[in-house]
Write a structure and sequence with these properties.
Layout: H1 3-11, H2 36-42, E1 64-68, E2 85-89, H3 90-96, E3 114-116, E4 122-124, H4 127-135, H5 141-160, H6 166-173, H7 201-206
Antiparallel strand pairs: 1-2, 3-4
The structure holds zinc ion (ZN).
Length: about 210
Amino acid sequence: MNDAIIQAGRTVFAYASTEHQRRHGPRGYTNYRAYKPWLRDEFTFRCVYCLSRERWYPNGHEDFSVDHLIPRSAAPDEACDYDNLVYACQSCNRNRQDAELPIDPGRAPLAAHLRVANDGTIQALTREGRWLERTCHLNRPLLVSFRKRVLGLIEFLTARGHSDDESMLHELLGFPDNLPDLGTKRAPAGNARPEGIVHSHLARRQRGELPRMY
Ligand SMILES: [Zn+2]
């Protein structure tokens, strides 16, 4: 049985069980979209709300957007504050609009609030989780059926137990090919957390430390 496949089945739709500590701290961009490469790496190339990954979209990161925790309309001064930004798919971002969040999805251990069931639905465990599920439409039918297919495929491959199935899943569960090179980026007002660069996904891949799937 392939350990990598079993591990992928456990983690593909698992929300974080621990609080997220920001790895990066670029400062000074005047266009909030300039933070996107940092946010891709920060949030592991997936939507903080629905866990959809860049790899599942034909246009990869172009189908994702920069989402403001405190909406620009409510706090224009924080529109370009890195710690006020998260990474979200365009659907979740659009569904949320400017709604005030009851919880910080870029930091909170969302596993306490949301859980993905084997049938692909997302179950809310708390009031905050229910708010996220309803506001971002996390149980939109196409997304539920996609999650169900992914889980079914992983279950099938796990039961089959072939040692060479990992390459089949790599296309679905691997990191993007175009990992951002944050070490070459110079934020206008510097980087509050420069130590994060060596832990970026590209740096880890270059050292041979990045797993094939996550
Ligand atoms: Zn999403």
